[in-house]
Amino acid sequence: MLSPSLSLLTTLGLLLTTTLALPTAAPPFHVRAKQSAAPSLPASTLPPPPAGTTLKYVALGLGTQNYTCASPSASSPPMPAGALATLYDATARLSLPSGAVQIPKLPATSLKSSNGLGLPQLGQHYFTVETAGGKAGSCEGVGAGGMQVAYAAEYWFYG
User: Fold this and answer.
1) Which residues are CB-contacts of 28 (< 8 A; sequence separation ≥ 6)?
2) CA 56: distance to chain centroid?
3) What pLDDT, on a 0 to 100 scale, did the predictor assign at position 83?
4) pLDDT tens digits, one per residue of 100-149
5) Going by C-beta distance under 8 Å and a sequence separation of 6 or more, which residues neighbour residue 79?
6) Pairing state of beta strands 130-133 and 121-124?
């Protein structure tokens, strides 16, 4: 049997060890976009950003390109009917190491919530410049409502 003082020391030691092993809240992590790094723009017929301007925002656009079909046959070409998109401010993610920024596969409905990707919303209904996806397939079997094709786009804002 342990003496009362040894028992007290053992109990205090176990308490201290347990307390130190408990998870603690990490300090807030603040990220600022790198202003010094000059991004390399993809080949484009658009004019370059004006001299003296810097990259202010990078946005992720997620939405649909919309098409109508005159008839539900393969010979009927899909006609563009506009796009619907939401832009998310991804600027702060730029200064993270490239491996740290991974956008998970999420259902489109989660992106409409304020949580979604955790990116502030910049606005809605934009015209795209660089797009992945969004190209219409055949009108074969498409009803009178037309079709919506999901796309993602990257937007750069200079100022």
Assistant:
1) none
2) 17
3) 85
4) 545 555 555 554 545 456 666 655 444 444 566 778 888 888 877 789 99
5) 67, 68, 69, 70
6) unpaired
pLDDT above 90 covers what percent of the chain?
1
Position of tokens 């010094």?
36
pTM: 0.50
Distance CA 6, CA 13 (A): 10
**Consecutive H or E run containing 5:** helix 4-21
The residue to which tokens 């976009």 are assigned = 33
From the number of C-beta atoms within 10 Å of its C-beta (0-12, 13-18, 19+), residue 88 rates as: buried
Distance from the first to the final alpha carbon of the chain: 76
Q: Where are the domains of the chain?
A: 55-158
- 129 token code pair: 């410049």
Q: How many whole angstroms separate alpha carbon 113 and alpha carbon 63?
A: 14
